[in-house]
Design goal:
Shape: globular
Radius of gyration: 25 Å
CATH superfamily of one domain: DNA methylase specificity domains
Number of helices: 11
Structural class: alpha+beta
Helix content: 25-40%
CATH architecture of one domain: Alpha-Beta Complex
Number of strands: 25
């Protein structure tokens, strides 16, 4: 790193704006109106649009400065850190038109600061640690605009900024491509399953059942006749020899925070001694895991590999190998129904008795085999994309601090990427 890298602060080189106090009585659900981006919409690295709020297009006059643009970085100022990470994201092309809401910061580049480079400065572990160190408040931790502006970092020449952003951006683009590909594959699988096993396309000979008309020869049965319901356990946290081993240990937090169909990494791991010394047990790859209690009751995912699990989740495992693919697609809609029926004075709860009441329609083995042949290649591709994205994410997170600090130069980073992906 030469002398051309200069110490600076976000306040010196970035354009920072906080949002507008939109009045809730004017919110709309009209998809033709611009979306509002507030702290609730910002998650780790992306935006979520469930329960989106919108602003009447006829009321946007005078709000020109609050329009967001692709590449802008947004940061939640209230509770900026959650279990999943820093609530910071870059605005994508698909996120606009959108307006910035109060208590949310928008950061944008300038003549001296490339917006792409800014994205990675604010995505660095150094920035995360800075936010954690300066946020104030206990009930609702928060960070101020002046604190954001005070963050200091090294600023390379604009040409080097763009090269760094291009290298890291290529990795992020591939990760995003994998995410979109998996969404498409999941939609294809869901559509095929619905056609064959919910709409019964191609079956004209239907008979009445307690779940409505079903193809002749298909069975209506209790869910627990088809699956095993497994619980887990937690090794003693005071026993150091039980923790930090080679056995991945899934918690409700892991399942709740799983951003895709498959969970392949867990926050904590246990040892074989921890497994044997507790109620935890190994859950096979492909099992459906569902959070059984708490605020995220009903969140589910598939285990991408064999893992252990704690007692706040249930694992749903097919009793027969022929049912494995079928269960992956039949159980999630049942879980949604179970959540509606869940009970609990403080938190929603799913119990064994809740599962005992669930029923489903089970096709003959010939139909199950046809489903497996059609869908397992899609499932394999989805899981392969998850693993590739994990490798790319790890590589990006390793290179990011070294590139933006000048420890590693772009040609060296490109060589590392080539070697890893070869």
């Amino acid at each position: 790193m030469g002398s051309e890298w200069k110490p600076t602060s976000l306040g010196e080189v970035a354009d920072l704006l906080t949002g507008y106090p939109f009045k809730s009585q004017y919110y709309t659900q009209d998809k033709g109106d611009p979306r509002l981006v507030g702290g609730d919409n910002v998650v780790q690295g992306s935006l979520r649009w469930d329960n989106v709020r919108r602003w009447p297009r006829e009321m946007v006059a005078g709000l020109e400065s609050y329009w967001l643009a692709p590449g802008d970085v947004v940061l939640a100022m209230d509770r900026p850190w959650i279990d999943a990470g820093l609530k910071r994201a870059a605005i994508g092309v698909g996120d606009v038109p959108a307006l910035l809401v109060q208590r949310t910061a928008r950061l944008r580049g300038s003549e001296r600061l490339d917006t792409g480079f800014l994205r990675y400065v604010t995505g660095s572990s150094s920035f995360v640690q800075y936010v954690l160190g300066v946020q104030t408040g206990t009930a609702v931790p928060h960070i101020s605009p002046s604190q954001i502006r005070t963050y200091r970092f090294l600023l390379p020449p604009i040409s080097e900024q763009r090269r760094i952003a291009a290298v890291l951006g290529a990795l992020d683009d591939k990760i995003e491509l994998n995410r979109k590909m998996n969404r498409t594959l999941e939609d294809m699988a869901q559509a095929l399953f619905k056609s064959w096993f919910i709409d019964f396309d191609g079956h004209d000979d239907l008979v009445d059942s307690e779940l409505g008309p079903v193809p002749r020869g298909w069975a209506v049965t209790h869910l627990l006749n088809v699956v095993r319901l497994l619980s887990g356990g937690t090794p003693k946290t005071s026993e150091a020899s039980y923790w930090g081993g080679e056995v991945k240990w899934a918690s409700a937090k892991d399942v709740s925070n799983c951003s895709g169909r498959y969970l392949v990494d867990t926050e904590r791991s246990i040892t074989t001694a921890g497994l044997e010394g507790s109620a935890a047990k190994l859950i096979p790859k492909g099992a459906v895991a569902v959070v059984a209690r708490g605020a995220t009751c009903g969140r589910w995912c598939l285990f991408g590999e064999t893992v252990a699990m704690n007692q706040t989740c249930y694992a749903i495992v097919a009793r027969r190998p022929e049912h494995e693919t079928f269960i992956k697609h039949a159980v999630p809609p049942i879980i949604a129904l179970l959540v509606q029926q869940a009970h609990g004075s403080v938190f929603d709860t799913i119990t064994t008795s809740t599962f005992e009441a669930a029923r489903l329609v089970v096709p003959p083995d010939s139909e199950l085999n046809r489903l497996t042949t059609a869908l397992e290649p899609l499932e394999d591709r989805i899981l392969a994309n998850v693993y590739e994205s994990r490798t790319l994410t790890s590589l990006r997170d390793t290179l990011l601090p070294k590139l933006i600090s000048g420890e590693l130069r772009v040609p060296e980073a490109e060589q590392v990427i080539e070697e890893v992906l070869r």
